[in-house]
Design brief:
Layout: H1 3-19, E1 34-39, E2 42-47, H2 62-76, E3 84-88, H3 94-108, E4 113-117, H4 126-133, E5 139-144, H5 156-163, E6 174-180, H6 188-197, H7 201-213, E7 217-221, H8 226-239, H9 246-260, H10 265-279
Parallel strand pairs: 1-4, 3-6, 3-7, 4-5, 5-6
Antiparallel strand pairs: 1-2
Helix pairs in contact: 2-3, 6-7, 8-9, 8-10, 9-10
């Protein structure tokens, strides 16, 4: 080959090497307790501090706490466990419970679980995330908060394939938890419309409704009564050491819930944040 051509080819190759992005660093799930999945480019961003409340502060969901804690503890110990769908009334602590359980399990078994959040908009990339996590030594709990699907939305097929199907199946070191306001992850009118317009109604809806069936655990969250709401408020007030009597606390909490038109864990926490800003903790 002409030496001039060889020199030119070498310089072109060197220039292309400089333009090429550096190879991604090897995945290390030991640097943080939690991560957020970003599919482009595929990477897990470490979370310095997870926004959560202690498990003991979540009132009115005692049975739900027991079920999810037992399932997650089994998974952390390497025993069989189920994917879980936490569904029901908004503001009753579904995502808060997942994060609190993750913290409680890691406190009992340090470093056992990494919590990984995948956004609803990225659910179609869930198979890519599983490929990234497959074979990792650390067990991973994937959380998708406020998961639901609308008409003409086909992303649910990616979720179905990784929950229960596919040749490879779900990696043994991965568990999937989702929260949703909908029991079947889809609006009722969408399911009923499919049923009413199909030649075979049961078959038309089976594919969509069966998505929720892929979760081994269904954990329901329902509206709380006034006493449960007061227990939530009193627990938060004690935790923050707010200097206020029980009678005055309940009166203000009740007024707050009336103005919001609802009673829930979220409403209770928002009230406590307002109260703490006004009166501050006890000295």
């Amino acid at each position: 080959m002409d030496p001039r051509l060889l020199d030119a080819a070498s310089r072109i190759a060197a220039a292309l090497e400089r333009l090429a992005p550096p190879p991604p660093p090897p995945l290390d799930l030991a640097v943080a307790e939690a991560y957020v999945w970003h599919p482009v480019p595929p990477r897990l961003a470490a979370v310095a501090e997870v926004a959560r409340v202690p498990l003991a502060l979540l009132a009115g969901v005692e049975r739900q706490k027991q079920i999810l804690l037992e399932n997650t503890t089994r998974f952390a110990a390497g025993r069989p466990a189920n994917n879980a769908l936490l569904w029901g009334t908004r503001g009753m602590g579904k995502s808060s419970l997942v994060k609190a359980v993750h913290a409680a399990v890691n406190e009992a078994h340090p470093g056992a679980l990494a919590l990984i959040e995948i956004h609803r908009e990225e659910i179609r990339t869930l198979p890519v995330l599983l490929d990234v996590l497959r074979g990792q030594p650390r067990r991973c709990l994937i959380l998708c908060d406020d998961l639901s699907f609308e008409a003409q939305d086909t992303d649910y097929k990616a979720l179905k394939s990784v929950l229960d199907g596919g040749i490879e199946g779900r990696p043994a070191n991965v568990l999937f938890y989702a929260t949703s306001n909908r029991r079947h992850l889809m609006p009722r009118d969408m399911i009923e419309n499919e049923r009413s317009t199909a030649i075979n109604p049961s078959e038309a809806t089976e594919e969509k409704v069966s998505l929720s069936d892929r979760f081994g655990l269904w954990i329901g969250f329902h509206n709380c009564d006034q006493e449960t709401y007061f227990r939530m408020v009193e627990g938060y007030a004690a935790y923050l050491r707010l200097p206020i009597g029980t009678e005055a606390l309940r009166a203000e909490a009740n007024e707050w819930s009336v103005t919001r038109g609802a009673r829930s864990g979220r409403v209770a926490w928002q009230f406590i944040q307002d109260l703490a800003g006004r009166i501050g903790p006890a000295e």
